[in-house]
Amino acid sequence: MTDGLIRCGWVTSSADDTIYRDYHDHEWGQPLHGRDALFERLALEAFQSGLSWITILRKREAFRSAFDGFVPEKVAEYDSADVDRLLEDALIVRNRSKIEATISNARLLVNSPELDLDSLLWSFAPPRRTARLASIADVPAVTPESTAMAKELKRLGFKFIGPTTAYALMQATGMVDDHVADCWVPVLPGR
Predict the structure, then answer these.
(1) Does 58 map to a domain?
(2) Is 47 among the domain residues?
(3) Catalytic site residues?
(4) Mean pLDDT estimate for the chain
(5) What is the DSSP string of the chain?
(6) Which of 39, 71, 145, 167 is the most exposed place for a label (fewest CB within 10 A)?
(7) Model confidence pLDDT, tens digit, residues 86-97
(8) Per-residue pLDDT reduced to its tens digit, 146-178
């Protein structure tokens, strides 16, 4: 199914997948704020590591259900029985390291009330580009900012976050605009 709109190259490979198209058109690259929303994205980007993003999008509602809406206070209370429950849940990605990292990251947030996740993550947003990149081939996988973000998150105790995952988070949450020049999605003012 096509609507005639030009999208970023990573979407055209799944043009018939409305989940992917809707994500691109309405979420990817849109500024996202708020501790819980950013915690969810951080967790989902970690789960995506080594997998296709469409896999995570198709499982996103199941993830939200399995992880109590990614409310850090709830996830921080998870114990070994919850880890076992999650490892048995065929509707999500069943990876012990990623599950345990999500729980550990929730505990870190809950036990560090002075930590403002929103301000911290957004402090690494680079200056806005003066023009969109010409093609998907020009989009980096890692930047100095994503490397610095990953380093700081690790220093604070966050788990399962590297420079590539950090950059994917930056793209997903609008810290960078990696829609390509001919993509129909409008450039947002101020970002």
Answers:
(1) yes
(2) yes
(3) 23, 45, 53
(4) 94
(5) ---S----HHHHTTTT-HHHHHHHHHTTTS---SHHHHHHHHHHHHHHTTS-HHHHHHHHHHHHHHTGGG-HHHHTT--HHHHHHHHH-TTS---HHHHHHHHHHHHHHHT-TT--HHHHHHTTPPPPPSS--SSGGG--S--HHHHHHHHHHHHHT--S--HHHHHHHHHHTTSS----TT-SSPPPTT-
(6) 71
(7) 999 999 999 999
(8) 999 999 999 999 999 999 999 999 999 999 999
